[in-house]
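Re: that backbone. Tokens:
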């Protein structure tokens, strides 16, 4: 379908230049927001398509090990909630004070489950994709319980999340497409070999649809509070960088191997800020929603930058038989 040279160039343009394209598409969505606001209806199918592609190229041997020995999944998920919420609270209080809707928005961006783009970034970064997906699954199921508890404790207000409707929504976006990809891979093994070389290209294109559909509706609130954008952007950039850095250090401390550490960078650093923006606006008002929206744009950009950089560096494949209980090594 593609010659090797054409494939390399297409991968470089579509996937390796992902950070630049995200900024370009975000700017386009803000400039012509009315044209791209209807694309918000395409964000869920686009994310589902990303998970379908992941299911097609997933390492099923590694996934079976994680199901049989889930300690690594549970350890990683626990670290995500502790680090992301802790960083959000500390930075919120330092930047905006204890009682501020901006603080509430920053905290909300750290107490929601991990985002689907964390899985995509783990794939691009040559991390442990089965581990990333398994941790995201745990996040999805505990999020409707943990997020309201943390928001009540730290932001001072309860956030109502209907558990089963939320889980059903995530099942439609995440679990069903992922399961369809896995089933198809098992039924037609040759598909994995065919799709794997272009998986990052297809996933990147789907992510650009998400950027257009997410940023366009958010452009109004962001531009209405343009005077606050500088401190807000500074806070959310620091939030994301600290979460990613501490996620890596945590994974190293608990003796995760290199691919698993790369996955933890994004599991901790990239939260579901689209959900955070909705919850923050509903619970704390539009000013809180602005912070979550700013985080959304920044985590897509910073996450893709980190993923592309890590993906260009060598890393040993995850060892299915060891399931993470290996000697700690330096980041590849």
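Recovered sequence:
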């Amino acid at each position: 379908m593609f010659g090797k040279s054409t494939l390399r160039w297409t991968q470089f343009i579509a996937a390796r230049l992902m950070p630049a394209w995200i900024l370009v598409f975000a700017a386009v969505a803000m400039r012509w927001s009315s044209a791209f606001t209807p694309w918000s209806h395409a964000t869920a199918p686009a994310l589902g398509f990303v998970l379908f592609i992941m299911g097609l190229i997933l390492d099923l041997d590694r996934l079976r090990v994680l199901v049989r020995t889930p300690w690594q999944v549970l350890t990683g998920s626990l670290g995500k909630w502790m680090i992301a919420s802790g960083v959000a609270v500390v930075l919120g209080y330092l930047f905006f004070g204890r009682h501020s809707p901006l603080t509430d928005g920053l905290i909300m961006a750290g107490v929601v489950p991990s985002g689907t783009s964390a899985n995509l970034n783990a794939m691009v970064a040559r991390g442990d994709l089965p581990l990333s997906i398994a941790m995201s699954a745990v996040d999805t199921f505990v999020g409707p319980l943990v997020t309201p508890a943390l928001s009540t404790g730290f932001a001072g207000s309860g956030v109502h999340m209907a558990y089963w409707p939320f889980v059903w929504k995530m099942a439609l976006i995440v679990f069903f497409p992922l399961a369809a990809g896995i089933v198809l891979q098992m039924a037609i093994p040759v598909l994995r070999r065919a799709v794997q070389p272009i998986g990052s290209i297809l996933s990147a294109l789907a992510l650009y649809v998400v950027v257009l559909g997410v940023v366009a509706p958010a452009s109004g609130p962001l531009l209405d509070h343009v005077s606050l954008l500088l401190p807000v952007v500074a806070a959310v950039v620091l939030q994301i960088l600290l979460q990613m850095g501490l996620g890596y250090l945590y994974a190293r401390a608990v003796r995760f191997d290199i691919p698993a550490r790369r996955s933890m960078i994004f599991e901790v650093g990239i939260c579901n800020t689209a959900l955070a923006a909705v919850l923050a606006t509903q619970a704390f008002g539009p000013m809180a929603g602005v912070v979550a929206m700013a985080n959304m744009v920044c985590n897509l950009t910073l996450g893709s930058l980190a993923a592309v950089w890590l993906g260009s560096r060598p890393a040993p494949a995850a060892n299915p038989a060891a399931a993470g209980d290996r000697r700690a090594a330096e980041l590849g």
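Residues 321-332 have pLDDT under 50 and may be disordered. Residues 92 and 325 are 36 Å apart (CA to CA).
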